[in-house]
Amino acid sequence: MPLTPMRQILDEAAKKKYGVGAYNVNNMEQIQAIMKAAKETKSPVIIQASHGALEYSNMIYLKKLMEAAAEENPEIPVAMHLDHGPNLKTVKAAIALGFSSVMIDGSLDYDTKTAGGAHPARTFEDNIRVTKEVVDYAHGFGVSVEGELGTLGGIEDDTHAEAVHLTDPEQCEEFCRRTGVDALAIAIGTSHGAYKFKAEPKLAMDLVKEIHQRVPNVRLVMHGSSSVPAALVDEVNKYGGKLEKTMGVPVKAIQEAVGLGINKINVDTDGRLVITAAIRKVFFEKPKEFDPRKYLGPAREALTKLIAERMVEFGTAGHAGDYQPLSLAEMKVIYAAGASGGCGGCGCGKKH
Ligand code: G3H
Ligand code: 13P
Ligand code: ZN
User: Fold this and answer.
1) DSSP-assigned states of every residue in 271-305
2) Hey, where are the domains in the chain?
3) What is the pLDDT of residues 212-262, one digit of tens each?
4) What is the CATH number of domain 6-337?
5) How much is the pTM?
6) Who lines ligand 2 at CB under 6 A?
7) What is the mean predicted confidence (pLDDT) over 20-25?
8) Probe ligand 2: pick from 249, 269, 270, max atoms within 8 Å of CB?
9) What are phi and psi of 198, to 5 degrees?
10) What distance in angstroms lies between residue 155's CA and the mean position of ligand 1's atoms?
């Protein structure tokens, strides 16, 4: 069973107005947990690997694990996506590995560092240039592309990100038209990691609505979408962790965003937390245990449960059998026919 193009998974989600979680992975247990959750809830799924994950796994291991995941679960549409691709070189490596989707994070220049060690923001024109280069390359293989406009905040001092981080809706039409991206990551006040907010956040939902109206055939993506449940933070701390009090993005806010036009929801931190809590629990309760299966196994089970819950909450559950996955070769033909960016109806790129 080959991997499914992310474009198709998101177009189908847009047609029926549900969200699809994109879950980050670095190892076998995470991939197995996500696939088990997808199978149990009959959900299409996006599994994603960052540049760091590719380095950690020496690339080839993730490729083989993904092939196993798709082969073992032929009834589940599964896309393998490069998360926050820093440049064309990494995009090419991911496509060579067989990924069915890539992100080019053109909002930052990852190849340059300022004196303070941060990556500088790219100009709008520069973002368009690097993103278009990736789209031209990836679509030649039938591979979907996610771009990014605006920057996600780091650790927030307040309950929402500063205006300077948010996506400018006026730039979205020009960006999508000139690059031909399939999906667009927009900044609406979320940030990566566990320490997002100190109180219930107020996200820029009006931006989701406006951007969806402006680029209805481009699938919108919400990064930094972990909910960081207090009970999970408490569980980590109960067994020896020292996490600070924090808040993530409430599930109800994600559901509201899906109702307004978000279709891809990036979740990494919640998975990290649930794995850490489960492993800490075993070490705390059974300090004599040293068989990795005895702590990685419970971690895998806990992750399966969390992701199955998210699949139900995001509305993904039950949709795995709705459609016949396209191959990358079929997508390549669709892109070559100039249909990238959607058919204008459901946005799938096909003729109806
Ligand atoms: O958005 C970033 C993801 O959480 C991946 O994080 O670069 O540490 O693998 P990473
Ligand atoms: P979280 O840190 O909120 O899980 O966000 C993950 C993400 O956006 C990956 O691209
Ligand atoms: Zn992200």
Assistant:
1) HHHHHHHHHHHHHHH-TT---HHHHHHHHHHHHHH
2) 6-337
3) 999 999 999 999 999 999 999 999 999 999 999 999 999 999 999 999 999
4) 3.20.20.70
5) 0.94
6) 24, 83-84, 192-193, 223-226, 266-269
7) 98
8) 269
9) -100, -15
10) 14
